[in-house]
Sequence to fold (228 residues):
Amino acid sequence: QKEVEQDPGPLSVPEGAIVSLNCTYSNSAFQYFMWYRQYSRKGPELLMYTYSSGNKEDGRFTAQVDKSSKYISLFIRDSQPSDSATYLCAMNPLTGGGNKLTFGTGTQLKVEL
Amino acid sequence: EAGVAQSPRYKIIEKRQSVAFWCNPISGHATLYWYQQILGQGPKLLIQFQNNGVVDDSQLPKDRFSAERLKGVDSTLKIQPAKLEDSAVYLCASSNPGAPGNTIYFGEGSWLTVV
Fold:
């Protein structure tokens, strides 16, 4: 079993839709949870990070962490064609001096006009 | 603020040849990482440096991969000899341990094709 599971998609939605992207994980030591966006032929770009359980909102994006269920989500409201990209979840136990991210496989999202 | 710089962006080599990738992290970032991302997968950490010391190289295939960060700034990742399964994007990243969340910032990647 992989430490982090993420549905690879592809996920296709119409413009303006609410998008829900999810990851599950098995390592209870994970404390920091991140969402990266990766456009084609580009490196991952950090969208949001949250520490432990709870919600965090930034513009059209909301990140949600449920540590009891080992489940994290990213919601995108009013989705735009420019949101078309691969979304990677990443997690980090942040123990000691280390900062080792474990990534999901990424979900490919396409927002259509 | 300049981002993480990587070169070359694209490289095609034959198997058993060697290749080297260069990375310059964000100014002031003490921690530097090399990740490997195979098509359709998430990035996997190969090696992490704190200044010029290695923090974690547990997933680096040391029989063919090597990396160095001699002066604690830029870094080079070398593959010799390359295998077909090394075809991937090699992502360099950096972070500032004192910053909130210790956020990791990635470069655009060096795309390697081994034929």
